[in-house]
Amino acid sequence: MKNLLLSSFAVLVAILLVVACDTTTKLPVSTDDSKEGAELNIPASFLFNTTRLVSLTLDGAGLPGQGALVEVYDADPSAGGRVIHRVFVNSGDKQDARINMPTRLETLWFVTIMANGNRSVQSVPAHGKGINVQVAGGTVLNSPNGLIARYLFNEGFGTEVFDQSGYGTPLNLELGAGVNWIPGRNGVEFTASNSVVRSNVAATKILDELMASGEFTFEVWGTPANTTQTGPARILSISQGTGERNFTLGQGPFGGSGLDMENRLRTSGPGDNNGLPGQVIGGVVSTNETHFVVTFDGTDMSYFQDGALVASVNRAGNLSNWNTGYELLFGNESSLDRGWLGEMYQVSIYNEALDASDIADNFAAGSLIPYLYTFDNPFPADDVFGTLAYEDLWPSFGDYDMNDLVIGYNMVEVTDLDNRIHEIEFRFAIRALGAAYDSGFGIGFPVPYSRVSSVTGARYTEGLISLNPNGTEAGQTNAVVIMWDDSAFEMGKWVNTVNPADHVAEDSLTITVAFDPPLTRAELGNAPYNPFIFIEKDRGREVHLPGFEPTDLADPSFFGTIDDTTDPVAGRFYKSATGLNWAINIPEEVPYPLERVSILEAYLKFQSWAESGGVMDTDWYLDLPGHRDNSKLYIKP
Asked: pTM score, two decimals?
C-alpha cells in the first residue's frame, strides 16, 4: 500500500477508501507525467512468467557403473555458468525430468559427473518444450591419463562390481561367495579362502591396451586381514591357475613371509609363464589401510606403497607374450586356492606407467568414495536468490512499484537417486516493506497435507494461524505452509524503499519442509511452487502470482471485485481487467523500484516484454545497457 503515512488516522482511512474505490483499468498516477494513465496492451493469456517449464529426457546409455549425476547449467560452466537443476540418471535407462528455467535462456549446458569423478560437458539448444540429451556424450573434462578400468566398490549391494572408468566397453566383475560389502563406506571384504571377485571372461579390454602400450599401472587400495597369509595370496591377478599368469600382485611369497609383498610379471625376456622370478619386497605388509601400486614402463617394474617408491627392478622383454584369454581376478586365483583375506576399496588400471607425482597425488586423495545417497536441487540456482515482489492493495490496483513486500528466496530440494524429494530448505530474506498494511507469507504445495512430515523454522507471532500436528496450516486439503505471519516483525514497515542511505538489515529466515514418503517431481511440481501473501491480518485476503489458484482458506468474496477479475470457473486468477498482475517472480536477485515509481519507469524493457506476451526482451530484468533506470531503483548499499 502506497499512501503517505499521516498523523491523522481519519485522513489515512479516507485516502485508502479513495484508492480502493478507484476501478480504473489504467495504471495509477506516477511521478512521471509521460506515463500518467498509460495502459498496457497485454495478451489475455500472458501470466508475467519469467521462467518456463521444460521437459528433459536424459538417456543414460553408455554411462559407466550404475549411473551419473547430471547438472544443468544456465551458461558455460567454465565461464561462470550456474547450476539450475540436478538429475540422477541410471546407466542404460532414460530419465525424464522437468525443470523451471529462465525464459531468457537459449542454451543449456549439461555436465555429467560419473562416480569415478570423470566429468563430461555438452551444450544443447533450449528451444521448445522438450529437450533430449545423451548424457554420456560431450567432451570429457578430466579423465585421468591412461585410465582404462576402475572399480570403486561403491555399489553397496548386489553381486556386480561396475567398471567405472568410462573407457571402452566396461569390464564388470562378479562377487563370489564370502565377499561382503562393507557397511558405511565403499569397499568389499574377502572373508574366506575361496572368496573371489572376477570377470569370468577374458579381460580383453585391459589386455589389448596393455599389450599395445607395453606399459601399465595397477593401483589397489586395501587392508590385509593379517600378516601371515602367503602363497602368494592374490590381491590382484590376470592369470589362469597357480602356474600361468600375465601379472600378479600378492602378499607373502610361496614359502616366505606374510610380511613381504611379491609381484610376478610375464615378459618376453628371461623368466617363465608363471612370472617368476618375482619381485619380492620385504617387511612392508601391515594390517593398516595401504595404497599398493605397481608400474612397468617397458624397462623397470616399480613398487610404490602409500605414495612412495619402495623398490624397482629391471625386467627385460615386453608384454607381447601375454595370454589374451586370462580373466581379471581380485582376492584369489582362478583355481580358488590362493585366497587373500582383507578389505579392498578401489582398484584402478592404467595403460601407462604413472610417474611418482601422480602416484603421490592419488595416495593423498585417499580411498574413500562417499556414497551418493542424496543431492541438492536448487532454485533458481546454486546459492542464487530469486525475487518475489507483491502489491498489497488487491483487489484494488496500486501504484505498480512492486515493492509493498519484496522477498529474496533460495529453495533447495534434497533429492535421492530415484529423483524423489525428501525435504526442501527455504532461505528467505525479507528485503523491503513499502506498505502500511500488515502481511504474512506462505507457500502451497499440490499434495495432501498428510505427505508433510514436519515443518521447522516458521515464525508465528500474531496468533493468526492454526496448525496441524505436522506444521502445515489447518483447514487445507493440500499442504500449505505459512512461513511467517508478520512480515514487519523484525524490520518494521515502510523500510528499504525510499533512501538506500537509511537501509535496514534484511530479515532472514531458514525454514525446512520435510516429506514422508518422499515426493516425485510429478507430485510436487516445480519451485517456487505457489507462493502468496495475505493482507492486513485477514487470512482470507490472499495475493498469488497470476494464474495460480488460491488456497482453501482464501475468501472468494474478493474475487471479481474492484480491479480484480479472478474467476475460478474460467480458470482466471489474480489478474486485472487489463491483464495486469499483483505479484511477480524473477529468478535473480534484482533491485526493485523506489517508492511510488512504476516498474515501467524503472525497468525500461518491461512494457515491451509484457505487451509481447513474454516473447520480446525476456532478459528485461538483467543489468544490461538500456534495460534499467538506476535512478529509479532501490539499490542497497
From this structure: 0.74
